Amino acid sequence: MTSTIVKLPVAGTPGEQLLQEMGALRAKDANWKDGRTWSLVYYPGDELYEFLKRAYTMFFSENGLNPGAFPSLRKFETEVVAMTAGMLGAGPEAAGAVTSCGTESIMMALKTYRDKARAERPGVTHPEIVVPETAHPAFYKAAHFLDLKVVRIPVGSDFRADVKATRSAVTENAILIVGSAPSYPQGVIDPVEELAALAREKGVGCHVDACLGGFMLPFIRKLGYPVASFDFSVPGVTSMSADVHKYGFAAKGASTVIFRDRELRKHMFYVFTEWSGGVYAHPTMTGTRPGGSFAAAWAVMKHLGEEGYMEIARRVMQTTGKLLDGVNAVPGLYVLGKPDMSVFSFTSDQFDIYALADAMEARGWHMDRQMRPACLHLMVALTHERIVRRFLDDLKECARVVSEDTSAAPEGAAAMYGMMGTLSDRGMVKDFVIKYMDQLMSVD
Questions:
Q1: pTM of the model
Q2: Which distant-in-sequence residues (6+ apart) come within 8 Å of 422 by Cβ?
Q3: Which of 113, 145, 417, 420 ranks highest by number of CB atoms within 10 Å?
Q4: Would the pLDDT of 243 be above 60?
């Protein structure tokens, strides 16, 4: 690829001309509004979408860096945290913060447990977190930045964390045990009750990553779906993360990190008192915090309320059921595990699943690929309600075509993912991905 040098123009370009250019560029993006993607965007429909934009832009310029200057943002943040904590079974003593995304929520949780250990367990010089292999990579990213060791444990045939292996992995350096509700790859809830009980026994924290399920599981449980205990109602769960911009339908980026009490949360704060510019105190990783995301998160939670979220959950789960049945009915395909909510993956024992993804993308579907095991991943949202039949018809036809042409060499993404999944040298895979990212983030 030959890079083009892009310089700041000497003269400005008319705004309308730039908006037209931006619209043309956007036309090449994934078609999320018509239900052609299965991740990244949680489209709530035009009416709620327009309401969110109005709420966000009303506080477009405000900065959550100093809540004392903007009491409106302080109200939004504290009430979003309180509403989320209550929804997740926490008591009035719970505390937390609004963050920019699930990764930041997880990072702030790990920072909290690290600093708590530094204050209370000086003998722990190399702190460890015990994490199921299906946990989000954000835990590894946060551990990398915070100088923590990740102890990775296997999952069982049901894709849920192996409690026995977790027990064996907890050493005197452990500061935290992690569970997911649900895990991203297969959409299943880890055995949180057992993990939390083990954490209490060992005197360490237990964080439940509900970034994906925090705004769905409480409501489908009330609708009568079987949902294993996963939240603060479980003794031993000391913190949780839940994204408002996923199934909470807020604008990007709004997540929450919640602690069982304020005593634990105090270790989350960063304070620097020796700056000539004054005292610097901050709750999260970022400095400037966009007021629009606080406002939109508060507005959507107040606007939908429990009844609104339950109605959305009902429709999404009905759509999920149709997709699960439809995928399992396609010859050669089957769903992995027993998903607990509207997230699942499927694979094939008869043909290359990545080749199927390529065939579906040729028909305009943006498919998410996973490894170990090789599978395709779906996160179901409201927008998929109207495309179920079309998707399943295309899936059945593409599966037939791929199964009848197994001699063809894999191409495109199928070849790339197939190669990365089989290489035993994971360092080579990492180098390959770094080169790909470098190329992707370079100017064409």
A1: 0.87
A2: none
A3: 113
A4: yes
